[in-house]
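Our collaborator T.R. sent over the components below with a one-line note: 'Predict the complex.' Nothing else. No constraints on interfaces, no templates requested, no preferences about which chain binds where. So this is a plain run: every listed entity goes in together, and whatever single assembly comes back becomes the starting point for the next discussion.
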Amino acid sequence: MADLTSDFVGIKSPNPFWLASAPPTDKEYNVRRAFEAGWGGVVWKTLGAEGPPVVNVNGPRYGAIWGADRRLLGLNNIELITDRPLETNLEEMARVKADYPDRALIASIMVPCEEAAWKAILPRVAETGADGIELNFGCPHGMSERGMGAAVGQVPEYIEMVTRWCKQYYDKPVIVKLTPNITDIRKPAEAARNGGADAVSLINTINSITSVNLDTMSPEPSIDGKGSHGGYCGPAVKPIAMSMVSEIARNPATHGLPISGIGGITTWRDAAEFITLGCGNVQVCTAAMTYGFKIVEEMISGLSQWMDEKGHESIADFCGAAVPNVTDWQYLNLNYIAKAEINQDDCIKCGRCYAACEDTSHQAISMSEDRTFEVIDEECVACNLCVNVCPVEGCITMVPMEPGTTDPRTNRPVEPNYANWTSHPNNPAAKAAE
Amino acid sequence: MGHSPFTPGVVAGRQTAEALSDGFADLHPPLDDHEALVAADRCYFCHDAPCMTACPTDIDIPLFIRQISTGTPEAAARTILGQNILGGMCARVCPTETLCEEVCVREVAEGKPVEIGQLQRYATDTLQRQGVHPFERAASTGKTVAVVGAGPAGLACAHRLAMHGHDVVVFDARSKPGGLNEYGIAAYKSVDGFAQAEVEWLLKIGGIEMQYGKRFGADLSLEALKSEFDAVFLGIGLGGVNALGIDGDDKSGVRDAVDFIADLRQAGDLTELPVGRDVVVIGGGMTAVDAAVQAKLLGALNVTIAYRRGKDRMPASEFEQDLAASKGVRIVFNAVPKAVHGNGAVREIEFDYVSADMTPTGETLRLPADQVFRAIGQTLDADGLPELDGRKIKVTDAGRTSVDGVWAGGDCASGGDDLTVTAVAEGRDAAEDIHQTLTGAVR
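Returned assembly:
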């Protein structure tokens, strides 16, 4: 049986599944229930500075997009950080941590970008016995207008500065949560590392408007006829998050910096993928908000089964295993040639592959009178669109050509050796192959 | 053999081997991978799900369906089998239309439930096909338990006891295990020897010894079992069949539906199994439907189910009634058998039509019949039992009988519906209570 225990920057938890700082972790009641349901850790809903708490809107806080059968694919929110008094949160955190010593409890913090503000709150958080802190430099709505959240996360110098303060005034692990609302995720990650961060977590939510009401002309969620961009999350953001995670994992300046993966993680498989891209653990929010805390049972059973099947004994066994395979386009093997192949036994003759290829790609699929669809190897560039639009999984596959055979599209032999763009004759900046 | 559905009398070979093979094929062919994913996708992962509450074995249905949808049917099977070790058979024979699927929120909202039974079968078949037995036996406790009856209750009880480290001996009167799973269920609900394969798989837990040909009351007594074992579980089912109690019910051609079903399940070659041309089944439960549909599939020309009450009171579900109708079985309601006519062998059966309160209306019905099956309920058929509650063994919640150290469950015990899944739940729960009693362990 695979060992799912997690040691993330020294913070131990019985499994790598943490609940992200968000509405599900807003208070003692929820967090206790989350731990009872089996979650390995919780990042408490972001704390603000002492004083009157923030207020939230009193209309809809969430907007969503759905797939067929109303499966929730993307969620956006305009909720702010905790709107409960700091003292209340701290007392509850201390109680919960005392009762669940084996679970990870992390305090998410967002206070003004002033040393005094951080210096004031950190000792109070330390008193709760929390296992570490997460700096919320990510929230893209509301708080960013006040110079916090994503407003800090978009300025690497601020990230470094605040991280340094935290390392100075707090002696447990400091995790820096990054916003994706920037052009190059490597810069804030480098800044976090330079400031002494123990880890980064990403992604926070993405600026978004989920829909516009065409009767009222208001963006959704609509507050009295007006809308504001919210933070987008859920299954739809996973590819964006994984790309950003991989950029940090393979950047020499941040390689090896522990990452807590966040962004649309809904199943054990999503979690496993994030971990292979270099994450030491994962954080989940939207999936829990959609289906309830119980989904962690499926995450645990699924990850455990997959690890057993693959012979992985611990999370560390496959952490980062896919990172070496993430590369730049220019290093992809241009001598690798594949052709689409349609399994006629599996084909249900819907013709979607034909429409896609004929109308929008390379006219590489033929259609007969009796609706037989076949690949024209002379035209096929192996773009994979037919695979992606085919409703039958596994019906169309990309079959690599053997070296030495002739590609009927180019009439050139398939070369056995690896060769990429950097040495390609069409590249004006090509260097001779080594 | 030259016989056809029109041949009078009780004869074999009314259908060709091909027609029989088609007719007795799997009632619900298994889902393939793609179908399973599509079916699983319809589940809403309801909170405190009604389906789960409706399941007598409390299987976490939303969780196992989610495990299927995330590509881990093996984990789904573990979720199912942890609650119901005969989850494979229950997926085939449970009247899901009156249990989990009846209360599925999508059945209530759309009249189209998530296909829970089929998904359960997909998961359990996946694991069992791999030959994996997902549970390990605890260290031996040195305690011994006798389980009487290798039906669903006895097997579930034995497995759970073995898992807890007890040494179990299972006794059964017949020559094969499975009880009604092997002898009492329509062939098209459990094809390809599934009942035996499932028992073989179940026994992989270890610590269970099977002894066949041992009938309670004849070869086994409660006193002897009690002195030899630390605990006894009775899962002996209902061996007797209620009599019609009318004139002529001893004529040849009148027999118990359960015997016909058992003969059919054990027949090597269905072309050699005789069936009447005009068959009448008396009763209104699943046994009546199983017997009637199978008689029709064997080639009987006219098959009629005669039930004494109205359609709304019929114990067989709407699905079962529709199944019977689709196979060409006629169902007559409000008909109480009055007399069996014939000279030695049955020729005709006569009914009184009755009103809702069972008062004869004065109208009668005579049906030609060369074969009549009794399916009007079964009875306990043994002596030397613990105290009874009506016609069954009296038990408290976890199957405790009036005799110390003796538990009972399944059809022979009071309470619960006479369903495979209920028997499994009772056997399992009795095993937990036995375990707790023998070791002082808290569940």
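Summary for T.R.: Residues 295-310 of chain A form the longest helix (16 residues).
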